[in-house]
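During the reporting period the student researcher (J.K.) took over the structure-prediction task from the postdoctoral fellow and processed the backlog of single-chain submissions. One of the processed entries is reproduced below for the supervisory committee.
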Amino acid sequence: MKKKIAVIGAGFSGISAAAYAAREGHEVCVFEQHSGPGGRARQFRTEEGYVFDMGPSWYWMPDIIEGFFRDFGRKTADFFQLVGLNPQFEMIFPDGKLDVPQAFPEIKDLFEKLEPGSAARLEKFMQASRYKYEVGMQDFVTKPCHSWWEFVSPKIAGSALKLNLLTNFRDYVGGYFRHPWLRALMEFPVIFLGASPKNIPALYSLMNYGGYALGTWYPMGGFYQLVLAMKKVAQEQGASFYFNQTVENIAPADDGTVSLTINGLPQTFDAVIASSDYHHTETLLAEKFRNYDEAYWRGRTFAPSCLIYYLGFRERIPNLRHHTLFFENDLDTHIDAIYENKRWPEAPLFYACCPSKTDPGVAPEGCENVFLLMPLATGIADDESTRQKYLAEMLARLEKHTGTSDLKSKIDYQKSYCVSDFVRDYNAYGGNAYGLANTLSQTAVLKPKIRNKKIHNLYYTGQLTVPGPGVPPSIISGKIVAGEVHNLKIKNYEETV
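J.K. obtained the following C-alpha cells:
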C-alpha cells in the first residue's frame, strides 16, 4: 500500500530513509530546517574562497557506503572521485610520530619494526576483526532491535565467542600488542564510538578492519559530495526535499495519520520518520506520547561534543598530512575529563584535518584549509575566551610539529563551533556531536527504540538509535527504518490506545 511519508531532517539517516522508502513507491517528503541537506555534514564556503566540511571527515568503511549506491543501481564513481590517502594519517606522540600507510602489507612492516613479532599478531588480529566486521555489519547492525529474539539464529549463536562481546577493547588490544604507539593506534578507531576503549566491547575491533584494512579515503570536493550524491539518488527514486522547514509539533490524528506542524502549518502523513535529534523529536510530542522521560536521557552515556575550528591560512603549512592525530598527552586523562569530570581537559588530545593537501579546490591558490577538532564533554559552558585559549594551544602544537611559527598571524579565515552551536543548529541533547556512546549497556536492543510505543506510525532513525554513531551506521539506520515503515499496516489511531 502506497503511503505518504514525512522524513524530518536531511542528514545521512534521513536521506537514506527517504531513498529506500521512495524506492518502494511511497510518496516521500523530506523537511529540513536548514537551507540545504547534510545535517552535521553540511558544507560552507567563505568569501575568501575556502570550502569547509562542517562535520565528518573520515571516509571509512567504503564498502558500506558503496552498498547504498549499489542498492539503487548506481556507484559512488557516478558522482565523485574517491582518492585513497597514503599515508592514511599521522599520529604525533611525545617521543616521535607514526605514519600509517594505505597498504596493509606496509602496515605490517611498520608494526614489525616497532615491535618484533607484532606483524604476525597483527595478521591474526585483523583476521578476527574481519570476521567481526562481516558478521557485525551484515547481521548485527541491520536488525531493527525490537527484541533480543532477532539475534537468535544458528549463525549468530555460533559467532558469539568469536565476537568477544563481553571483553573490553583495551584488554583485547593489550593481548596482542605491547608497544604504546601500536596500542594507541589500535585503540584510536573506537574513539569514534564515544567512550573509553576500556568501556567498549571488543566486538568493535571491526572498526580496525573497516579503517586500516579497507583504507582511508577522501571524496574530491569534500565529504559533502557524499551528501549531494545520496540526495540525488533519493530524488531519482521520487523523494522530494523541502528546506527552511521547521517541524514544530507532532501529534496523532483521529484518522490514524500523524499531524506535523511545519512552519506554523499543519500537514498529515501516513507515517513519519524522524532523523532529527531523538530527544528533541520527543519534545515535539505531548508527554503521554513520548517513549522516554527526561530522567531516561539524563541517565544515558553520550558520545562527546567537540570544539571545532575552521581555519584558512594565507600560506601553505609544511610537514602536515591530510589527517593528523595529536596524541602527545594521555588518552585516559582526556577521556576522564569528558566522562568522569565533565570539564574542559587540562591536557587535551586533538585532531587536525588539512584537505587542501589532497584537494586544491577547497582553498585559494597558495593557501591552506585546516579543520581542528578537540573532543569535549557534553553540557559544558563554551564561552569565546575558553575557545580561544584552546585554539592557542592547538596552534602552538601545530607549529611545533610542522616547524612553523606565528600561525595565528597567518590566519585568513576563522570560525569556531562548539557545544552551544550543536544545541542551536541541531537541537543536539547536551550539545553532543556523535550521538550515544556504544557501550555494552547501550548496544542493540538497549538503545532507544526506533518505533514510538504510543503512535504506531512514528519512527526514529539516526545516531541516537540503532545501529549507532558514524556515517555508515547512519546510512544503515535509514535503511532499517524505511523497511519497517514499508511493512507498516495503516490502522486507525483508536486501535492503538
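The committee noted the following: The CA atoms of residues 275 and 461 lie 5 Å apart.
J.K. will present the remaining backlog at the next meeting.
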